[in-house]
Automatic annotation (TrEMBL):
<dbReference type="GO" id="GO:0045454">
    <property type="term" value="P:cell redox homeostasis"/>
</dbReference>
<dbReference type="InterPro" id="IPR051548">
    <property type="entry name" value="Grx-like_ET"/>
</dbReference>
<dbReference type="InterPro" id="IPR017937">
    <property type="entry name" value="Thioredoxin_CS"/>
</dbReference>
<dbReference type="Pfam" id="PF00462">
    <property type="entry name" value="Glutaredoxin"/>
</dbReference>
<keyword id="KW-0560">Oxidoreductase</keyword>
<feature type="domain" description="Glutaredoxin">
    <location>
        <begin position="13"/>
        <end position="67"/>
    </location>
</feature>
<dbReference type="InterPro" id="IPR011915">
    <property type="entry name" value="GlrX_actino"/>
</dbReference>
<dbReference type="InterPro" id="IPR002109">
    <property type="entry name" value="Glutaredoxin"/>
</dbReference>
<dbReference type="GO" id="GO:0016491">
    <property type="term" value="F:oxidoreductase activity"/>
</dbReference>
<dbReference type="InterPro" id="IPR036249">
    <property type="entry name" value="Thioredoxin-like_sf"/>
</dbReference>
<protein>
    <submittedName>
        <fullName>Mycoredoxin</fullName>
        <ecNumber>1.20.4.3</ecNumber>
    </submittedName>
</protein>
<dbReference type="GO" id="GO:0009055">
    <property type="term" value="F:electron transfer activity"/>
</dbReference>
Amino acid sequence: MSEMTTTATDQFTMYTTPWCGYCKRLKSQLAREGITGREVNIEEHPESAEFVMKVNGGNQTVPTVVFSDGAAMTNPSLAQVKKKLAELA
C-alpha cells in the first residue's frame, strides 16, 4: 500500500492505479495545497478494487476518493475535494 503522507488526521483515502493520469494530476494538486490523505493502489489490493467497483456501479474508476464520513467521489476536482474537506472540518 503506497501512501501519500499519512497523519493521524487523515480525512480521506484515494484509490488509484500507477498508470492513471487523472490520479497523478489530483495527487500533485493535493500535494501543492498541502492536503494529505491515504493512497491505495487498487492493482496491489484486490479487495480495494472490489470496493471501488461497488462504489462506481461495477467500474474500476479511479481516482475514487472516500472521505471520513463515508462519502465517495469519483474523479473529483481539487475544488470538490477542498469543499468536502471544509465541510468535514
